[in-house]
């Protein structure tokens, strides 16, 4: 039993070291593609075998790091006060949710870009995307007169895609607060527009 507990503590310690090393590497490197599993293993002081056993592959490592950074926002969304928390009115909560996603991606540009670009499957099938889409759709469904919440949720989330955020903040050099204001104005217009030309999801 003591050996098993020691092994578990070692595994936890190794995982924390790997996440910390990956976090530092993705922050420093210009391109997400510059960070390899070998780089992370070396920086964490663990073998590549340990890295692959703990996370499976590069996509698994990216996902674990993304989720670790996202945890404070998730807690605020699930149990926190308005405007992010569940007690907020939908007209207030939708813009707050999208602003939280945008700010997270602005703060984690390289990691978000690496995660959304990595892998061979559709980014829309990724667990983190499906979770945000499901939440946003559920809140949109609470707004009277707004139809096709499923598509609207997709369209609003498209404004926070990592590649768009990277272009706006990087190449276009638009200030952070201006990007946030532009997104807020866009969301307000969408929520105020009601049904698009009388169309519904069934049509």
Automatic annotation (TrEMBL):
PROSITE patterns: HTH_TETR_2. Residues 12-73 form the HTH tetR-type domain. Residues 36-55 bind DNA. Keywords: DNA-binding. It comes from the Bacteria. This is TetR/AcrR family transcriptional regulator. It comes from Streptomyces cuspidosporus.
């Amino acid at each position: 039993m003591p050996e098993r507990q020691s092994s578990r503590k070692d595994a936890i310690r190794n995982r924390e070291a790997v996440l910390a090393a990956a976090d530092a590497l993705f922050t420093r490197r210009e391109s997400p593609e510059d960070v390899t599993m070998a780089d992370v293993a070396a920086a964490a002081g663990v073998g590549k075998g340990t890295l692959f056993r703990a996370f499976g592959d590069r996509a698994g490592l990216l996902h674990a790091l993304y989720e670790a950074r996202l945890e404070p926002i998730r807690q605020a969304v699930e149990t926190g006060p308005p405007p992010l928390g569940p007690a907020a009115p939908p007209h207030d909560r939708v813009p707050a949710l999208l602003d939280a996603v945008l700010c997270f991606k602005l703060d984690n540009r390289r990691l978000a870009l690496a995660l959304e670009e990595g892998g061979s499957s559709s980014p829309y099938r990724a667990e983190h995307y499906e979770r945000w889409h499901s939440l946003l759709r559920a809140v949109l469904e609470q707004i009277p007169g707004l139809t096709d919440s499923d598509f609207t949720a997709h369209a609003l989330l498209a404004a926070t895609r990592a590649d768009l955020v990277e272009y706006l903040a990087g190449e276009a050099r638009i200030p952070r607060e201006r990007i946030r204001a532009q997104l807020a104005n866009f969301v307000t217009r969408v929520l105020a527009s009601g049904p698009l030309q009388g169309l519904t999801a069934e049509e």
